[in-house]
Write a structure and sequence with these properties.
292 residues; alpha+beta; 20% strand; Jelly Rolls; binds 2-oxoglutaric acid
Length: 292
């Protein structure tokens, strides 16, 4: 594996980058988002969690004069912020992100999920998982575009990736590590430590990872440093999306709560729906997957 090929220079995907993604399931694009755009995302993040884009169940009252940092400390993440924030919705279409995705996924591209992590000091991370376990596509095209709003370091809980794309969903076992908020995890103890990579990136970088690629993030061990990241999930518009949100929605062969991002939607005749509602991520994630 030539790790250099994981890095996209100047936002221009090279043939080596594409080959790397197809084999190893991830890519890193430093400085893809401008500092000005990052500032705007930071302001929007504060506005969302202050309730200025609408109340989301579980949001706490904001006191007069309470600084953003105090407000944000109370939360881990919000799911589907694009449903209440026009600027997050617009960001789904970020041209530099879409240009890369239309080459690594399909010219016909749709988005079904956004998540905005604030991950305040002290908050736990996400255990080892493959995103397609939760969001199944039919063609294994799921990809997360993970936008670093703050610098992401080992200390504040950056992403960790195990390069590769196992051709199946790996077994999950109870989680006993206090690094993670989840009740279960993929057991990676058999994997050679040198194959488990921290993805430390500067603010403005975007990490792309395939829905079969194992990834996690650890606890934010700093006292004062947030690790804010916006993660948008995309897939090919050619694939149907049998996603019931872990049983929150009725079983479906094709969830049409999607945003067409580029190209054509072969299922456009079905129209779209608005079923997923924004919600705050609980501190401890109780979704149990499979038999433990
Ligand atoms: O940002 C994180 O801490 C975890 C993100 C993640 O696991 C995901 O987007 O699937």
């Amino acid at each position: 594996m030539n790790k250099e090929s994981a890095y996209i220079n100047d936002g221009r995907l090279s043939p080596e980058n594409l080959a790397f993604y197809l084999e190893w399931g991830y890519l890193v694009a430093p400085d893809l988002i401008t500092p000005h755009e990052i500032q705007a995302l930071k302001k929007e993040t504060a506005a969302i969690f202050r309730g200025e884009r609408g109340f989301v169940e579980g949001m706490l009252p904001v006191h007069e004069g309470e600084p953003d940092s105090e407000v944000l400390k109370k939360y881990v993440a919000i799911h589907f912020p694009h449903k209440i924030s026009k600027s997050i919705h617009d960001f789904l279409f970020h041209p530099r992100i879409v240009e890369i995705l239309t080459q690594v996924v399909s010219p016909n591209l749709k988005c079904m999920q956004s998540m905005l992590f604030v991950k305040a000091p002290g908050k736990a991370g996400q255990s080892w998982h493959q995103d397609e376990y939760y969001i199944p596509t039919r063609d294994q095209s799921l990809v997360g575009a993970w936008v670093a709003i703050d610098d992401a370091t080992i200390d504040n809980g950056c992403l960790w990736i195990i390069p590769g794309k196992p051709g199946y969903m790996m077994r999950r076992v109870p989680n006993s590590s206090n690094e993670y908020a989840d009740v279960d995890t993929i057991d990676v103890s058999d994997i050679e430590p040198g194959r488990i990579l921290p993805v430390e990136v500067g603010s403005g970088a975007v990490v792309f990872f395939n829905g079969y690629t194992l990834h996690s993030s650890r606890r934010n061990k700093t006292n004062d440093c947030f690790r804010t990241a916006l993660v948008n999930h995309y897939m090919s518009a050619e694939s149907m999306l049998p996603w019931d949100q872990d049983g929150k929605l009725p079983p479906t062969e094709d969830l049409r709560d999607i945003v067409l991002i580029a190209g054509e939607d072969p299922y456009g005749w079905k129209q779209t729906v608005d079923l997923n509602k924004p919600y705050l991520r609980p501190e401890v994630l109780k979704i149990k997957t499979g038999q433990l």
